[in-house]
Amino acid sequence: MPLSSLLTSFSARPILLSMKGQINDQGASVHEPNYSFQRSRATPWQITVFFLLGILLLFAASCHRRITYPLGFSTSLTGRGSSLGKDLYEGTLLAVEEINQGDGPFHIQLVVRDDGGEPARALANAKEFARMGIEVVMGYATSALAVEVLPFLEEKKMILLGASISSPIFDKKDDALFRIVNSSTSEARAVADHMAETFGSRIFLSIYDQGNAAHSEAWANTFRNRYQAQGGIVAPSIGFRTRTPPPYLEVIDEALQQEPRAVGLCVVASSIDTAGFAQVFRQRVPEGIIAVSGWAINRDLITYGGKAVEGAIIAQSYNPVDSSPGFLRFKARFQEAFGRIPPFGAMHAYETVKYLEAALKERKTGEPLKEALKRIRELEGVQRKIRFDETGDACRPLFILTIKEGAFTLISEREPEL
Q1: Please, which pLDDT band fits residue 227 given cuts at 50, 70 and 90?
Q2: Spatial distance between the Cα atoms of 354 and 346, rounded to a whole number of angstroms
Q3: For the ranges 61-70, 249-258, 382-391, which has the lowest average pLDDT?
Q4: Is the pLDDT of residue 1 over 70?
Q5: Quick one: which H or E segment has residue 362?
Q6: How far is residue 264's CA from residue 196's CA, in Å, rounded to a whole number?
Q7: Is 108 within 8 Å of 71 (Cβ atoms)?
Q8: Which residues of 110-138 are buried (b: 16+ CB within 10 A; e: fewer)?
Q9: How far apart are CA 178 and CA 158, in angstroms?
Q10: Of 276, 258, 259, residue with least CA distance to 267
């Protein structure tokens, strides 16, 4: 099925023309063939040949029969977090199409539900998937949603594949979660190290999204501990909740009142919220330094941040300017399908589906999928190899990036400290 068919739904039923140009009431073709032939008696030899051919055809058909495997997908297709949700959705679609068009033993049936980024809806979707007999789910965009659904999935012995779930609260746990991304604390350490190496000891404000505290608060705390261990200062973190109108001005002014000497801002939030805080901070501190979490790395950060995000420092296990053959192939396929450069969520979701495919091929008859996933210790990612430990936590290289003249630019690549 072409990707355009997956992305488009048609309400009208098709009209099928018959060979005589007629259609019946059900829209099916009307065709009354008229054959004439002479009867002839088949010999015993011919009957035997036809019988053997029939058996061979049945055997060939059974050998090529594909197993339909349902995959539950719940994400934020609407709401303020829909930017990342859309990225995850499109990356998943691309991988599913590739698998279904290939000659492998599995045909993935994607069952999609919108959770709007709301924990209650995310859990309701997980319960629906369970009633449908689905054993694997993915797409949950934030660690906060994973916190909500994981206990239920554990109870039902289902598997959660994480394309963007990176909170350290899940680190080193033998649970139902298998992740394609590093623990977020590795990003925070890498950004703190780069800030210390490049700018020395400065004073930073710290702001994080309380709506995804499982990820953002841990990221902010790790950045503070790491940077202060190298002589810098990070003011006490201020949490906020996404709302309309956004709280950018009041939160930045509150933070500067607490620490008026600050020349840096560490913000852990979505791309749009990060851009908004950067705009206000650069109005107050024109030459300020900005540290950004990998959660924010997509085009919305640049579109809404403009010149305010120039020079911002980001660490991610995704390099948007990578020139490796694997990424260039993926980038070309994604651009052909969706007309844009693939963001980190799309790449990680694509890899997550490939992770599932590898486990399904590895799985023994009657074996829980969890055991097969545990045996996958290395996967060829789009950009670099991904290694997994015995609990399903990933380890993959980090890229230190900045924004220069309205585009992401690579500074360096390093191994993560997990």
Answers
A1: very high
A2: 13
A3: 61-70
A4: no
A5: helix 344-362
A6: 12
A7: yes
A8: bebbbbbbbbebbbebbeebbeeebbbbb
A9: 11
A10: 276
CA distances to 36, 42, 49, 50, 412 from 39, rounded to whole Å, are: 10, 9, 19, 17, 80
Residue 310: give its domain's CATH number.
3.40.50.2300
Residue 367 burial by CB count (10 A; 0-12/13-18/19+): exposed, middle or buried?
Answer: exposed
Q: Which of 108, 128, 185, 202 is nearest to 416 (CA)?
A: 185
> In angstroms, rounded to a whole number, what is the distance separating the alpha carbons of residues 281 and 276?
9
pTM of the model: 0.83
Is 112 among the domain residues? yes
Q: Give yes or no for residue 321 having a pLDDT over 50.
A: yes
189 shares its domain with 209: yes
Q: How far apart are CA 191 and CA 198, in angstroms?
A: 10
DSSP state of 17: -
271/302 Cα distance (integer angstroms) = 8
Mean pLDDT over residues 390-417, rounded? 96
Shared domain for 84 and 149, answered yes or no, is yes
More confident residue, 304 or 63: 304
Residue 399, CA distances (Å) to 79, 267, 313 in order: 29, 18, 10
In a domain, 157, yes or no: yes
Domain range for 96 is 67-182+322-396
331 and 361 inside one domain: yes
Distance CA 307, CA 303 (A): 9
- pLDDT digits over 3-62, tens only? 544 443 323 333 222 333 333 333 333 333 333 334 456 576 656 656 666 565 554 444
Which of 290, 316, 342 terminates a domain? The answer is: 316
Instruction: Report the SS3 class of residue 198.
Output: helix
